[in-house]
Amino acid sequence: MAETARRSARKGKKPESFYEDARLELGNSSDSSSDDSSSSDDSSSSSSRSGPNTTALTVPSFPPPPPSSVAVGSGLGLASGVGASGVGVGSGSSPLVSASASVGLPPGPSLLASLLSPHSSLRSVALDVVRHHNASPNAAECSLVNLLFLAVGGGAQGSAQGSAQGSGQGACLLDPRTTNLSDVTDGEWAEILTDVVADMQESNPAEVLLSAVPPGKRTKVQARFGEAYGKFWAEVAGAALEEGLGARHAEKEKGKGNEFGKAGRGGGGTASRLDVERVRDLIVRITEIVGVGQPDIRFASCLASFSMSHVLLSKCTSLSSILSSTLRSLSACGGPTTSRGSALSLQASSLRRTIADMEEAVTTCAFSAVFMHRYRDSNPAIRALCLEHLGGWMAERPGIFLEDKYLKYFAWMLHDGSAEVRRAALGGLRKPFEAVDAGGGEGAAGGIDVEKMKNVCVKFLPHLADLTVDVDGGVQLGAMRLLLSLLREGFLDEFEDEGKWDLINFRSLDDNATEEMRKVSLEFVIEQLEAFDVAEDEGEGEGEDGDEGRREGGGAGAKGGAFSKGGKVSQKDDERVKVAQIDALASWAAHALTGGNNSDCSDSGSFDPSAGPGPGGGQIRVHTVHHLVHSLRLIPQFAHLAVSFPALVRALTDDVSAVDAGGGTALGVGDAAKQRVLVRVLMSAVKLEVGRVSGGGEFLEGTKAKVNAGGGAGHANANGNGNGGKGPRATSPEAHSAMSIALLSALPSLLSKFSSDNVLLRQLAQLPRYLLPSVFSLPNRKKDFLALCKELAMLYVRTSDEKVLNMVALSMKHLCEGGHSRTNEAKLAVRGVVDGLKEKVMDLASRTIATGVGGGGGGGTVVTPAAKKSKKGSSSSPVPVPVPPPEAGSARAVTVDSEYAFGLALQQLRVLGKRMDLPNLLGGGSDTLVFVKAAMEAAGRRVGTAPEQENELVLNESLNVVCEVMEVALESLAWMLVKVYDSEEPEKKLNCKKEVAEEDFTLCADDASADDSDASNEDHEDNESATILISIRDGIVALSKNIFSLVKTDEGSVNDDEEEEESPLNLFISDTQEVSMKIVSDLRSLLHKSLSDASSQTLRSLALTDDGQLAGAMMRYVKDQDRDLKMLKEEGGGEEEEELFVMNCLAPQARAVLGNFKAVNRREAGNVLSHFTGTSANASELVKVATLFCKKKDSVKLLEVHMASLRQGYEAYLSSSVGELAGSKFTDDELGNFSQREKSHKESFSSLVKLSARLAKSLGVAEIKDKNMKESMGGFVKEAVRYAFSVAKKDGNKKEEDQEAFGRRVNFLALLKIYVGFVKKDKAKKEEILGEFESCEKAFREHLFYDEDKHGEHLKVGKDFLSNLGAKKRAAPAPAAVVSDGEGEGEGGGATPDSDEDEFEKNISNSKRGAGAGAGAGAAGRRGLDSVMEMDGEDDATTRTGSSSSAGATQSSKESTGKVLAAPKRRKYGSR
Q1: In Å, how far are 11, 12, 724 from 8, measured between CA atoms?
Q2: What element of type H or E holds 881?
Q3: Contact in structure between 1405 and 1425 (CB atoms under 8 Å)
Q4: For residue 686, which of 767, 772, 776 has the smallest C-alpha distance?
Q5: Residues 6 or more apart whose Cβ sits within 8 Å of residue 1269
Q6: In this predicted model, what pLDDT tens digit does every residue of 1408-1425 receive, in sequence order?
């Protein structure tokens, strides 16, 4: 039996591949190689296969074929023919027929090789197969079935075995000598297919050419082969119709060619020559395996059947055209009674029979036998394939398939769970509309009557609307395009579901929709607007650019003109039409943004443009209007509207009320929304046009950017606005110039008209930045330019909106720096603004402050500015002077209105100072100093009187004044500092050697004298600049210290919601300290300590070296805010406060630390690192980045910071310890609070362990790569050991040890678990650490306070420490060290009382010594770790041991016995 032979063949040796013949043809194909390499990541296979699926199909990479594979007659013997000249190309007799038919074998794998060959023609291969079928039908059909099996991976493992055994076929391929397909029973088919599936499971999924997977998951090779595979079966069907035995016999009977013209493929053949039965037999043969359980085989067989059926229907269409011509000829010749009429009648009858036969073959063999069973297949790719080809049948033969009984399948499958199937269903429903649009009419499209689709489409309209918000973007786009076609055909005229209408329309404004989706949705909206219908009616039938009906888009033509009967229109009427269309579109957008038809579409997941941000969606999403403009530019018929700037301006200036959905006037919110929409449309149109012409956003990066004709091509195409048929065509800078002229003349009036609407001003104030500077220089535009400058200046003074101020400041800067001839006029306008603000600030700063209720109307203390000034221009500090209360209404007293005006003027100066040189605008160095000092003195008086201020309104406005003063002062300092940096740049010196004559000495002396004079002048200017900068710096520092010295009170209030609110004074303190935190951080970063090493004397004098009090104040502020944040978290809140803490507290402190890391305050840096864990994800990320910076800057110093951070955290943990409850009886509340405190205490230590682990891991994973840090790690661990065995001092007594705290630090060793892992592999360092540990432990045991029963438990941590270190105690313990935290006296190596640095930190570093270097503090090597400077007066007890940090620490331990290191003397500053 053949089946037994096939099964037994599997037991042989596994073949290498079945592509032997194909390799001879494709082995050196560069095209295939490039495709295969590019698709290596896209391979996929059916779930029924096993094996890896990690690489794509690589067709050229076939193994070498065995010698037997090239022998003729072996079943694979066509390789020589394929490799020589291709299959059937350029030869009269095909080698496929001559080599295979002679032995009765099918072509086998060589047929697949022919399809894969780039030199083969599908038509020629198909003709070979049909001719082979004429000679041996069974063999040809076997070859076609084998091709199907090979395409899906069957036979790949057996073809070489068959060649080796002489059978010529694979173990599972059909052999016509043993298999007759006509006699194969169902049972035999089952065995054949079982063998094929088993062979498919053994094949490599990456080498499968055809697979039942979605198109998006197919590799490039699979996609190309699938297309060629379908075309091949179509060619086979076409060749069978024309070259089959029936066609040949008919030709012999007639004895002549085509009598009635060409009929389809091949250029000849009448209906009587078409062998329909041959095609039917092929379809039936393939249909026999359509129901196989393996999805790949089902997919391949369905594709083959559908491809052949399309040929039949295509031939039907061709014959129908001939039939129509024949019937016309029959009617013209007088009917069938004449001799010619009789022949024509016979021909017509033959044509009808042939057409009927082909249609019947499709409906019975393809539709009933294949589609009806497979459109509900379990594989989505097969279901989609069925729907795709049914749509093709419907477009080819609408008379048969454009009926409800076929359309219902598309409608049903719209609910399919696979997005691929839903896309195919929507595509099938759209096929008739596409055919009509492409054919230009029903006749050319085969008599398509789209009205037949109305019943099905209208019935499923609600679901089609829902599909516009489908989870798949392709389904959304397909549904929107189908709905657009239905709307143009009038199918939606009776659809009255307002919610569904809004659902569809609002997609044009959806941020989450694709660009193409928004474009099609906007076309849907435009189809509903009457203003566009008028333009369509004017354009119908007249002119080349006119479009017929709605289907072609309506409106103006592609060139943007409005049409009349004569094809011409006046410019006035053209602009009127454009304005009407823009107004209609804006009215609809305003209607959508303000609620639409008040329908609730939230249940369907639709986009609601009226649900803007804010409480309850109180703000409309006017930013979505940008999508309308962008989509409008993508629609060729209406792209001109987006660049018609005169029409856009006119639509904005005309007072036309918005129109609601019913056609009525929409007043109030709708009308205001329309104005905002029009402004946003204008702004978006300008941005897109400037980006297109100038080549992107470079125009805004510098006002002097050059705009050239070709600069915007790439950017325009990237945005869909290039020359690719979408959007207005990119021209030249003339378009930008025309836009600038139109806006320049209109902007002054627009700014004046909408001066009270800040939302509109935020957009309009940006427009001057997009104007071409060269336009300002035009003589006829001087008036417009001056009017614009005047209006911007007035607007800047009037407005208080921060965003408007920023936009106006940017626009004024653009006008001042545009490189045009009228920059002086613009600068004069800006100078006028600054002079007015300066005068106002100086006046308001001199007002007196009354602390009584009512501002100037009550009694109390009045603070006045000091009138006497020193010679240097500085004034003394404000002094509170008790004076009589000012009279009511006194012009010189501080009131709420005056404070508001003061704060507003400072705000306007601050915003302008961010964009332009503020000191220069204020008049220069001395004038700037006078102004800044006056403002800071006024702020200082307000800070000093804040605790006594009883007028809450005045206090709230004074808060703004203080904050704005600090920012203005810092901006002034920064602008002046930039000039100092620029002036201090080293000059380039030329080292030129030349001979100097005697007469040159006189010239040199004169030049030297002149240089000395210039240098003297420069030194004088530098000294003056340095004096001004130092004065401003000191003023900021003094004001910040006063602000940080304020202390909050416990006062508060309760609002209407019974929520506790902070008092006005506490709010004043909180906000001013928050601003001071940022200002001080910036100041310390600008004037960092490293400037003290600069070569310039000016820069050295500016360095802020004495920042200890500021650093301590910043630390306390961060700790206070951290404590408040933790309290909020305990109450279940604090999510927003976490982010504010990072931005307002942690980031400023980290910036100050990084800016001064060379001379960093270790306690401050340690405070930053303490937020590595336990705060928030953003805080951890910030600390991580800061750690990486510090590690690159100074890795050894980073270790010091780690020690400071861990020690601070551990001291905080000790201070939070819970004592014992006093008394003998306790209430439940007392016990509960005690338990909670104990729990919090334990959790704090767990948090500290996590912090230690995170810090240690940030240094490296398993090993430290930094050489310096690696050398210093031993000293770090030893110092930690000393600290763990040290004794803290009593509060208030720095010499007496605290007996209660004895032994409490030993647990600090538990934090070193990961740190010791970095040194455990270094034997020398491990011995040093072990010696230090034993010495300290011995001193600890011999201490006066040691009690074995009480403190013995503490030493268990030491065992864990040694275990982590991988060391054991030595038999002979090292000499004991004296463990003390007191200050040393005498010459024992201790620090003097005047020492400012903490000596124990110097011992962290295990300095790298040279080879053979001895121990000792004086040995040469790298520097040790600097100390942590203590500046806040807090206790920082440390361990003092006598061992020094050196390579010889173990040998010198005896010398260090008994020595005590004194505690350092800390820097102190006044308390708050």
Answers
A1: 6, 8, 62
A2: strand 879-881
A3: yes
A4: 767
A5: 1191, 1195, 1196, 1198, 1199, 1259
A6: 333 333 333 333 333 332
Residue 368 is given by DSSP the state I
Query: Model pTM?
Result: 0.73
What region, left, alpha or beta, does residue 308 occupy, with left being phi > 0 and alpha being psi -120 to 50 degrees? Answer: alpha
User: Residue 40 has which token pair?
Assistant: 């290596």
In degrees rounded to 5, what are phi and psi of residue 415?
Answer: -95, 10
Q: What is the pLDDT of residues 1438-1451, one digit of tens each?
A: 333 333 333 333 33
Q: CA 243 to CA 258: how far, in whole Å? A: 14
pLDDT of residue 607: 57
Integer Cα distance of 264 and 397 in angstroms: 16
Backbone phi and psi for residue 33, each to the nearest 5 degrees, phi listed first: -60, -40
DSSP summary character for residue 68:
G
Residue 462 has pLDDT above 80, yes or no: yes
**Closest-CA residue to 576 (of 662, 644, 676):** 644
Contacts of 122 (CB under 8 A, 6+ apart): 115, 228, 231, 232, 235
Which distant-in-sequence residues (6+ apart) come within 8 Å of 935 by Cβ? 841, 845, 906, 965, 968, 969
Tokens of 482: 């189908």
CA atoms within 13 A of residue 1028's CA, in its CB half-sphere = 25
Report the distance separating Cα 974 and Cα 183, nearest Å. Answer: 96
Instruction: Return d(Cα 599, Cα 571) in angstroms, integer.
Output: 41
Task: Specify whether the CB–CB gap between 105 and 176 falls below 8 A.
Answer: yes
Look-up of token digits 């002149």: 1010
CB 336 within 8 A of CB 342: yes
The helix (H) or strand (E) run that includes residue 1296 is strand 1293-1297
Query: Which amino acid is present at 55?
Result: T
Name the token pair of 1324.
Answer: 């020398």
| 1152 neighbors 1084 (Cβ within 8 angstroms) | yes
- List, in order, residues 6 or more apart from 729 with CB less than 8 Å away: 723
For 1356, other C-beta atoms within 10 Å of its C-beta total: 11
Give the tokens for residue 1269. 């840090």
- Rounded-to-integer distance, Cα 1134 and Cα 1136, Å: 6
DSSP string of 805-866, one letter each residue:
HHHHHHHHHHHHSSSSTTHHHHHHHHHHHHHHHHHHHHHHHT-BEE-STTGGGS-S-EEE--
